[in-house]
Amino acid sequence: MSFRAAVITFPGSNCDRDMADALEKVSGSAPLRVWHGDAELPERLDFIALPGGFSYGDYLRSGAMAARSPVMRAVIAAAASGVPVLGVCNGFQVLTEAGLLPGALMRNAGIRFVCRDVALVVENSQSLFTAGYEKGQRIALPVAHHDGNYFADDATLDRLEGEGRVAFRYAEALNGSARNIAGVLSESGNVLGMMPHPERAIEAAHGGSDGRALFASAIKSLVKA
Fold first, then answer.
1. Which residues are catalytic?
2. pTM of the entire predicted model
């Protein structure tokens, strides 16, 4: 079997090793590590991950500068060709700033950094990222963010809900996010942005393994015999 994944590192990324470790433990193959300044991605990629952190120190807006990094042109092209792209926390912010997902991530309503395990409800179990869950399933994942308030206008939110593009919701109001949205899918379904960290919950030693199914279901749908 073969599975070629890449983890993008930006200046200020601090969850790239966590993401790479999760992908290797679930798939058995170490992902390729790609620097933000690279103009091209490795060939024949099955999966791309944008990790959490504070790219460029969150100057201007979180993810705004990273979205203009040279490698993002290649990421946008790969996503357009159907390659799955996962953005977690700061990676979610980068995806919205790059136009791969609608909406924006704003300062938490309480203007505080939130770092704890939270309960989520699986809204869509039909995507390649969420097929390992049941619709309505309640899971627990850690969050660690200051600008995790997902915002979009009502028309966009109605469209996301109507098209089944809300992947996860917070079970309870957390940071002011519009309609408690914690994860959003692209129209094509191959791009997922989420605030909670599934890579930090893939084995019991982490305190829980609810994030493992996200990677396992994506890998299962992509791996080649």
1. 89, 197, 199
2. 0.95
